[in-house]
Amino acid sequence: xxxxxxxxxxxxxxxxxxxxxxxxxxxEVVDQTENLDQPGWDLPSDHFHVIRAVDLFEHxxxxxxxxxxxxxxxxxxxxxxxxxPHISSDNWHDPTHKRLLGSxxxxxxxxxxxxxxxxxxxxxVNDFExxxxxxxxxxxxxxxxxxxxxxxxxxxTALRNILPATNIRFELTPIKK
Length: 177
Hints:
Elements (H helix, E strand, L loop, with lengths): L5 E4 L10 E4 L8 E2 L14 E7 L8 H11 E12 L37 E9 L6 H12 L1 H6 L2 H4 L4 E8 L3
Parallel strand pairs: 1-2, 1-4, 2-3, 4-5
Antiparallel strand pairs: 5-7, 6-7
């Protein structure tokens, strides 16, 4: 079987049409079982032009190891989408969650980071969006506006407790020389 160039990491029981599904558990949509929390994935290097990891990153014990594997399997200019619970979310109650994500989570993997020496992989953070519950109410619309336009003030003050978000979604591109 030829592996498509679009992959859903941690697909669980659903994946987008045309994507190659990888998960630790076997389900009807999983194309390959893989422990994504361990290095050495049995996936080709420089192969994928779209990589998605939705509701996976918060479960990882070693996020740097994961990012190094994502960098390895990504084509240059690949679109990488990672979504997980925002630091203001009440999703911390899930016992399988090891971390929440904030707007600066992936700064550690950028060339500008003062922590760039932790890993050889590097990414450009193209965009992020702090997301609120799916039902558009006026208060959630205000929260969305404030969180995405005054992110630092939102994440570092009581605003995040008053108007808690649900998730944060990132778009990254690998930097390969």
